[in-house]
Design goal:
With about 160 residues, this protein is mostly helical. The chain has one domain. About 50% of the residues lie in helices and about 0% in strands. Helix 4 runs antiparallel to helix 6. It is elongated, with a radius of gyration of 20 Å. The protein binds heme C (HEC). The site of heme C has 20 residues, from helix 2, helix 3 and helix 4.
Length: about 160
């Protein structure tokens, strides 16, 4: 590619990046209702709950900390989508949104698996937020708690 072409390409890219800023998704933090929260329904040890809120709260609670770059498209699209989907799957502050007690129980059991098998938090989030990472002791406590919801019918 010659210089003129590179220049035209850079200008087009800049125009594109500026233009997409028009599409600003809503970054919400809906008010939490205490009676709907996980801790209003299930016994959660204090250390486990604070670890969950710290490491998972940005996508699984109503108190998302939106960083400055969450205002910039296309990051803003990806991040609001993550938060909306994360909350829909499991909102620590809206446990009553779980579709059934059975599903809610499955979610609780799933928490340990997600963390141990490193599905959660998502990779990109872990890269950006190394400081929020769960330490091995926290993961152990989390798993003891999470696995206490397995019934007698659970697989060994
Ligand atoms: C950056 C956002 C983000 C963070 C932080 C995050 N999650 Fe998620 N989580 C999601 C999204 C998006 C989904 C739904 C899509 C999926 O399953 O990948 C999800 C789904 C889940 C599910 C349901 C999985 C399923 O397939 O049913 C569990 C359980 C879960 N997360 C646990 C956690 C735990 C525990 C943490 C903290 C250690 C955490 N997540 C941190 C975004 C996040």
């Amino acid at each position: 590619m010659n210089k003129a072409r590179v220049q035209r390409l850079l200008i087009a890219l800049t125009v594109f990046l500026v233009a997409i800023q028009i599409f600003q998704p809503a970054r919400t933090n809906p008010p939490a209702v205490a009676s709907r929260a996980l801790i209003a329904h299930v016994q959660v040890p204090e250390d486990v709950y604070s670890a969950l809120l710290r490491a998972c709260g940005d996508c699984h609670s109503n108190r998302t900390r939106w960083p400055w770059y969450s205002r910039i498209a296309p990051l803003s699209w990806v991040m609001t989508d993550d938060v909306n989907q994360g909350r829909r799957n499991m909102n620590l502050e809206d446990w009553e949104a779980q579709e059934s007690p059975k599903k809610a129980n499955e979610r609780l059991i799933d928490i340990c698996k997600e963390v141990r098998e490193r599905g959660m938090p998502p990779f990109s989030y872990r890269l950006l937020h190394a400081d929020l990472r769960l330490n091995p002791r926290e993961i152990d406590s989390l798993c003891v708690w999470s696995q206490s919801f397995r019934g007698e019918t659970a697989a060994p």
